[in-house]
Amino acid sequence: MTDRFHALLAERGREPLRPAHGYTFRYLASHPHATTVDLAAHLGVTKQATSKAVAELEDWGYVERRPHTTDKRAQVLALTTRGREYLELADELWTTVEGQLADVIGTERLAALDRDLRTYIAAVHADQEVSFRPVW
């Protein structure tokens, strides 16, 4: 499914985003006041690695840095309009890929698979925030 998703992105001539970028998009979409330190903790990587990924996304116009309202040393990270549009495209393409899977296994099996995976994730990661959308 991931390969099909990437193929659909490539058909649209999009930048070669990696899974870490997807995790970044999802996190920033749901955490409007996130800093690089927050994002690094979420990704489980160093602040330096996070800064590099953010700089790359910033160069592509997907992320911007804004002044922090209370900490003059920090900056808040935010998706730009282009970044939010990319996230919407990712959701649209994933829906297409899920539809292709449903065509193969049937909608009832797909729904059962979704329920089973959500049950498993809830049991294993009960104490963590989990995204159920792909991160490409």
Report the structural category. mainly alpha
CATH superfamily: Winged helix-like DNA-binding domain superfamily/Winged helix DNA-binding domain
Radius of gyration: 17 Å
Roughly what is the average pLDDT, rounded to an integer? 89
GO biological process, one term: response to stress
Protein name: MarR family transcriptional regulator
GO molecular function: DNA binding; DNA-binding transcription factor activity
Keywords: DNA-binding, Transcription, Transcription regulation
How would you describe this protein?
The chain has 136 residues and is mostly helical. The protein has a single domain, classed as Winged helix-like DNA-binding domain superfamily/Winged helix DNA-binding domain (Arc Repressor Mutant, subunit A, Orthogonal Bundle), CATH 1.10.10. 63% of the residues lie in helices and 7% in strands. The chain is built from six helices and two strands; from the N terminus they run ααααββαα. It has helices spanning 2-11, 19-30, 36-43, 47-59, 81-105, 107-124; strands at residues 63-67, 75-79. It has a two-stranded antiparallel ribbon with strand order 1-2. Strand 1 and strand 2 (75-79) form a beta hairpin. It is globular. The N and C termini lie close together (10 Å). The model has no long low-confidence stretch (mean pLDDT 89).
